Amino acid sequence: MQNNQLLEIAKEFGSPLYVYNAETISYQYKRLTSAFKGVKNLRINYAVKALSNVSVLKFMKKLGSNIDTVSIQEVQLGLKAGFEPEQIIFTPNGVSLQEIETVAKLGVQINIDNLSILEQFGTAYPKTPVCIRINPHVMAGGNTNISVGHIDSKFGISIHQIPHILRIVENTNMHINGIHMHTGSDILDIDVFLYASEILFETAKNFKTLEFIDFGSGFKVPYKQGDIETNIEELGVKLTKRFNAFCKAYGRELTLAFEPGKFLVSEAGQFLVHVNVIKQTTSTVFAQVDSGFNHLIRPMLYGAQHDIVNISNPNGRERFYSVVGYICETDTFANNRRISEINEGDILAFKNAGAYCYSMASNYNSRYRPAEVLWYKDKAHLIRKRETFDDIINNQIEIVLD
């Protein structure tokens, strides 16, 4: 999308505003499927948690994707978007047995990541197909908060507990149709991913009724010019060869599954904000905008760097700014960043705002959550209205105080 198009969208729908480019999502989806074109049965389960707008989910379905969900609410969103139950995998962590039972009764693929629930569910529903999430004890990910395959992680059943899994499966006679792992997000070294995959292949040999092996995702996208990204094409060549060899040894064709979220939608999103104030202090020039970490928490939570472009003055002389929000505590998007000269009233665009931005937004400071727009077939479509004061107080109950 061009800067003038983004400016027109900001003028029409106001700011702050999330804008998603459907063409970019489509490009990333095709890039991933092309990388694994040598696999006979490939299944892409889009990770709903990255960006859960129903219109985006409908577009994913149009592309041919299935979905990965982590809550019953995400399952319900998927069903509302038109996905069939068999196109949904449910991979929760720490939820109640009741929630898993409710989802299972909908016909959704269940993925269990702890021994206690595995035994309880297998005892009650031995004929219901279940996938098992393994923790390979492999450290991957760009931040400790998103590295989920290491030994201290709360996710998955340890590879050292395989004997316990096998005992439960034997005692309950439950049906295991899948094996799964997810090492973490922002994977830089595909050799680490391939090493974890070997652990998953070895684990899979213990189960004779598998239909699929799910390798999770965590593929890194570039967040700034010259940034490192996961070489998905190289991974496709190497993992395809290994997966096909495993299927041959296993005795039948299995499905290779992935659960990409950020890889598909991150680069498709831009977050537009309005510059309220340019504030000069004794040491810093602040560009203060009409948003904060209530709308884009990743820089404060993960130390993530989102490129920031002044689309009102893209070719202006570059100066150094700290871009900060309007939240009543430290609320910094960028420190001492080179950006084309900013004036009050300009519109700034935060890049890579498609994943884990709106989905992690809040009403902190009683601020409204922004609107969302999908750029589809050269037209801006409003896919979520901006909140109003009624939305803030809708579920609050006023009591009479004597």
UniProtKB/TrEMBL annotation:
Pfam families: Orn_Arg_deC_N (PF02784). Gene3D superfamilies: Alanine racemase, Lyase, Ornithine Decarboxylase, Chain A, domain 1. Substrate binds at R298, Y302, E329, Y356. PANTHER family: DIAMINOPIMELATE DECARBOXYLASE, GROUP IV DECARBOXYLASE. The modification N6-(pyridoxal phosphate)lysine is found at K49. Pyridoxal 5'-phosphate binds at G218, Y356. Its cofactor is pyridoxal 5'-phosphate. Residues 25-266 form the Orn/DAP/Arg decarboxylase 2 N-terminal domain. This is Diaminopimelate decarboxylase. Pathway: Amino-acid biosynthesis; L-lysine biosynthesis via DAP pathway; L-lysine from DL-2,6-diaminopimelate: step 1/1. Signal peptide: none annotated. It comes from Corallibacter vietnamensis.
